[in-house]
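FAQ: What does a ligand-bound record look like?

Like this one, built around phosphoenolpyruvate:
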Amino acid sequence: MMLYILKANVDTSLLKEKLNRSSASYKFLNLYGKNLLLVWPDQYAKDIVDDSIEIAVNVRKSYVLSSNDWKKEPTIVRVKDTEIGGNKIVVAAGPCAVESEEQLSTAAKGIKRAGASLLRGGAYKPRTSPYSFQGLGEEGVKLLRKVGDEVGLPIVTEIMDTRDTEIFKKYVDMVQIGARNAQNFSLLKEVGKIGKPVLLKRGMGNTVEEWLQASEYILLEGNGNVVLCERGIRTFEKSTRFTIDIGGMIAAKMMTHLPICADPSHPAGRRELVHSLALASVAAGADMLLIEVHPEPEKALSDSEQQLTIESFEVLMNRIRSLAQALGRGL
Ligand code: PEP
Ligand code: MN
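The answer part, i.e. the structure of the complex:
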């Protein structure tokens, strides 16, 4: 794939004519404040010469816009005043599912007090069984907005359906794409168009390269505000719910300029493991953590076994703070 960085404010009409005459596919887009042109396949794309081109990069990867071949500096994703991908480690926390205003409000106050920067809760829940609690849907999103505003935390929640984009545009600060939709390409494209920051989980059966290719669908819509979230993959191992791929996270960090988040809760499956997996993720370079916290985990309507109590989350935040300091980072 040829990626051309174009000069600012230049006429590209001649370039477009040349491209239309060739057999190449192409796309112009603005990303990170730069005018870019992608041209493929390679045999048609390499020899384009035009005055409007500043830099030409041949990205020999299956992922292009997310690759650090052309963008060396790490991307910082801003969610309201919170910066993800900088020196500070950002923690998003909250219940697996929004169950009631009281439950959400208690969780939100607790995580805020402990130092979390984002409130996360599921309203549209991807459940393996149709008989399990499916989430409060739009009502849950509205509760997140209300409680988030009351405690002063931006909100993150998962979208499952392209038909819900208007709700997310109106109420949500960061849009999560879950592991089960990590390769739902029409959803990825629509979410890219919403124009809000995206937290993209890795599919439980996806390689690191496929995860980056999924992010490419969002970036291609001109939305560069993507955080990649490792949440564990399926392996033969049964002692944890999923296998958190710490090595894959480190590899991903070396391949992309996008920030990396780790979700230690879903691979743990049991709360006793969450602290150590969170700390291991920070040691591996995670820029963000996503941790499930519930005021009464044993009564939770989903993922009851893995959610931390508010007290346990406070202890974990102190441990993360100490580790972050040792690594020259903040919280
Ligand atoms: C979640 O974050 O609540 C969730 C459903 O996670 P995943 O998509 O990683 O399974
Ligand atoms: Mn969950």
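Follow-up question: can I read anything off the structure? Yes, for example: The first strand starts at residue 2 and ends at 6.
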